[in-house]
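Practice set, problem 2.
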Amino acid sequence: MRHFKPLSQSDQTRLDHLFEELQDSTDTFAGYPCNVKYDYSELHRFLTYSINNIGDPFNYTNYRVNTHEFEREVVTFFAKLLKAGDNFRGYVCNGGTEGNLFGIDLGLQRFPDGILYFSETTHYSIDKIARIVRAPVEKIPALESGEINYDLLKESIKKNKGKPVIINLNIGTTMKGAVDDLSKIKTILDELEIKDYHLHADAALSGMILPFVESQQAFNFEDGIHSIAISGHKFIGSPIPCGIVVTNQDSPAVSQPNIAYVKINDSTISGSRNGFTSLILWYAIRGYGHEGFKSLVDECLALTEHAVKAFNEAGIPAWRNKNSTTLVFPRPAEHLIEKWQLAPYHDIAHIVIMPHFDEQFINNILEDLKKGVKS
């Protein structure tokens, strides 16, 4: 029986206009860390099916319209990339916020009376997560670079001595691409004789950059991290927001309810999950491989260095943090922020150089900033 009627001409026109608007907006997409250079047309046929990756991808389920096999390969790739060893678990989630929620919730499961510490430059999702999980919070001021203020962090932990410590480390802050220094934080924990702690890394963007550089900042499992969240739609690129979360910590039994009607344990946050995004990430991993991703990272870092030089030569003071593709410069006029979709914050703005950038794209932005006039 057919109940779905064809769209009216006006509805079809609205869709056509939306398509054109999205095309135009993508052409000036400069301020936000999403790679828009990809081709997943080979996967379009899978949109015919109701793919639901419910539950833990490493367990069996009676809901067989899933891509758990491919999801397991994605998680395994990231576990190896992040040096998690043989004892790891994780899944493809809906984005960085869910990955952060998983990591912080895991820390609170391990240490229910723990206090959550993070810097004022931390992604807004951490404030939201703290509210959701009702965690006591200590928000620490940041250094000019964007890193957490280590001296003030130490004072705050010392003030709460006796309480377990849960720290959200920024592995690339939103506005400045700053990486919190894990070695300094571990030194603080050692000096204060803190034994019960959980270190979660919000590595939304830089988690796909640091593993491929020669002189990387410490942030992986061998360095002492307990959980890591990375966004899939940022450096890798995806038409659907997604992320990967990995941990080397065992799951408390209470966090893995058995869902009888689909015959699976569920250690995830969201339960029913998008199985198509696992295919997207798997396809990208198989297409690029380790060397392909490294080449993308090398190109973006070189282009960022070019942009720093070009901006400064044009009289616009611009800078970046180590191993960051986030170019920071003084906040320009609002019409330029709107035109190029720049990310502003107080007196600064930034562009985030992604694989879809090239020198001409940067030069076009720079010319507008130099003229400071509408075009």
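Problem 2, part (b): a different protein.
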Amino acid sequence: MPWHKHAKFLNPDACTGCLNCVNTCQHSALSIINRANYQTNKQQRKFINQFLINNLLLIFGIVMILSGLSLQIGYHMSGSYKQNGSGKPENIQSMTYEQINKIDTNRIVCGFYYQNWSTIHKISIVIFSLLMIYHIYAHWKWYKSIISKHLVSKNIQVITLSVLFFLVTFTGLIPWFIYLSGGSDFSRFVLIEIHDKLALILVIYITLHIIKRKNWYITAYKRIETQKVIKNK
């Protein structure tokens, strides 16, 4: 492939480092790399990748929060059985989540129906979860270091945020799978109720996390803009 060339060394142990192979390879599959520039470029790529992931987390996190609040305030809270003054309905285990909460799925909230908001929320949860898993994987050494060095108490906010994320994701996605598999709507009801309460706490922690790292976003943006100016010159 012209854009992704490879070279195979039949006897790599015989290499003396003369670099004649670079000049004689007719396919230009070999080149000399400046180690200092290579490390610098590697760090820049890592930084840009981190900046991109963090921004995608921010975007889909906002979408997830807004869609979740629209469902919770626009439908779940406004149609709860608690408002009818008669307590929990009878035969609750044979009813759907929408019936239990007396949700009007045909009502429009901010231009969307209940099903639209639900779909947006589920998709944003899935994408945000994948990005968050990658984010945690990329910072796994940091997590291991604070545990091994007993620094959990000094980083309790980040640890709590991570735990809350997994709990909110679990209680948000499992009801979806229960619905798709035709499982118990009562179990779905309980998990969604837990999800709603934990999500409100998660929103607070995410907001604090973003505020705490606002200087990083500003510095990162300026650094990328500076790199663009240097490349253009």
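Answer key, part (b): The chain has one domain: 43-232. Residues 80-90 have pLDDT under 50 and may be disordered.
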